[in-house]
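Milestone 3.1: sequence recovery, worked example.
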């Protein structure tokens, strides 16, 4: 039979329990104080060579210097960003696996897939938006259209005959192109590709008539004359493409072609102290003048966002892009 503790032993028991608790808390704090003490992995759920990849590698290189640890970038493309995003959502929440993802995989996918394997609001925690990426509509070089007005007229003459490349079914660029098409009253045929680089490549090779890609990823092809720019998203012209009209010049607004962003996320159960440490380190990297200059020169806008801001954007996007998908008649798969 278990004997009750005597009054004399209760203080000792209480002291031992308190000491054990303090040791456990101390051990957890020590583990976080030692973070990071091994290689970090940044998963990019898109192919190498696209805007997400180039920004991930730029930031990761500087982050490795700041954290004094190796940071490896791993491309895991497929299924409109789902494969790589899901891999991180299910990874160990220890701060050593990060996701560098775009707006679509977080804000659009919940409205496009009936059985999405991850919930952006429950399975991920957010570190911060790193850059915003405005889009440019580029056409194959031999398309019989010098301006976007020419292209619109051509499309109206031949409904659904002209086509466009996107980064995949339900991607930001499909949503953006369909939104722009609805605004212009034209109908195009959608040709999905597995990411930005293949979509741009399709326009360069003439496989498609137009593609909507980030300005940064298209700059080289535009300068070399392999594609011709017709229109940029946003309310102002890009300093990198000063001769290309913005969507506001055809009567649109910022939502006619929603810009993308690239930001960092981690598994949901990652300790807040680690998220804060990562966020601070990444913000310091993006604040470096050489990093900012490279981002701007590549057509991106440094963001330096907080975890709270990114979480708010994701939550808002899920609602607004869901409404847009229903308005455009895009059915979940």
């Amino acid at each position: 039979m278990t004997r009750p503790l005597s009054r004399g032993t209760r203080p000792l028991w209480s002291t031992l329990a308190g000491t054990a608790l303090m040791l456990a808390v101390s051990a957890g704090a020590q583990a976080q104080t030692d973070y990071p003490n091994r290689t970090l992995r940044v998963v990019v759920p898109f192919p190498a060579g696209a805007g997400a990849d180039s920004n991930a590698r730029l930031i990761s290189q500087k982050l490795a210097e700041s954290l004094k640890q190796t940071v490896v970038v791993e491309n895991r493309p497929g299924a409109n960003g789902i494969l790589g995003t899901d891999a991180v959502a299910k990874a160990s929440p220890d701060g050593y696996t990060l996701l560098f993802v775009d707006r679509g995989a977080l804000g659009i996918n919940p409205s496009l897939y009936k059985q999405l394997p991850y919930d952006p609001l429950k399975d991920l925690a957010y570190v911060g938006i790193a850059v915003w990426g405005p889009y440019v509509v580029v056409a194959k070089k031999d398309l019989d259209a010098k301006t976007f007005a020419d292209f619109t007229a051509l499309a109206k003459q031949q409904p659904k005959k002209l086509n466009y490349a996107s980064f995949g079914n339900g991607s930001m660029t499909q949503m953006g192109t369909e939104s722009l098409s609805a605004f212009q009253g034209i109908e195009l045929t959608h040709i999905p590709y597995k990411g930005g680089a293949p979509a741009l490549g399709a326009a360069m090779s003439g496989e498609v008539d137009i593609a909507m890609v980030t300005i940064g990823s298209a700059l080289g092809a535009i300068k070399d004359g392999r594609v011709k720019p017709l229109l940029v998203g946003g309310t102002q012209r890009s300093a990198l493409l000063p001769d290309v009209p913005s969507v506001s010049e055809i009567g649109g607004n910022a939502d006619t072609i929603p810009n993308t962003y690239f930001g960092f996320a981690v598994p949901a159960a990652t300790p807040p102290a680690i998220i804060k440490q990562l966020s601070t380190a990444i913000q310091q990297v993006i604040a470096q003048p050489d990093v900012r200059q490279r981002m701007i020169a590549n057509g991106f806008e440094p963001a330096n966002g907080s975890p709270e801001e990114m979480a708010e954007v994701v939550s808002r996007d899920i609602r607004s892009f869901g409404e847009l998908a229903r308005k455009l008649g895009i059915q979940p798969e």
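The first helix runs from residue 10 to 33. The domain at 38-133+259-328 is CATH 3.40.190.150 (D-Maltodextrin-Binding Protein; domain 2).
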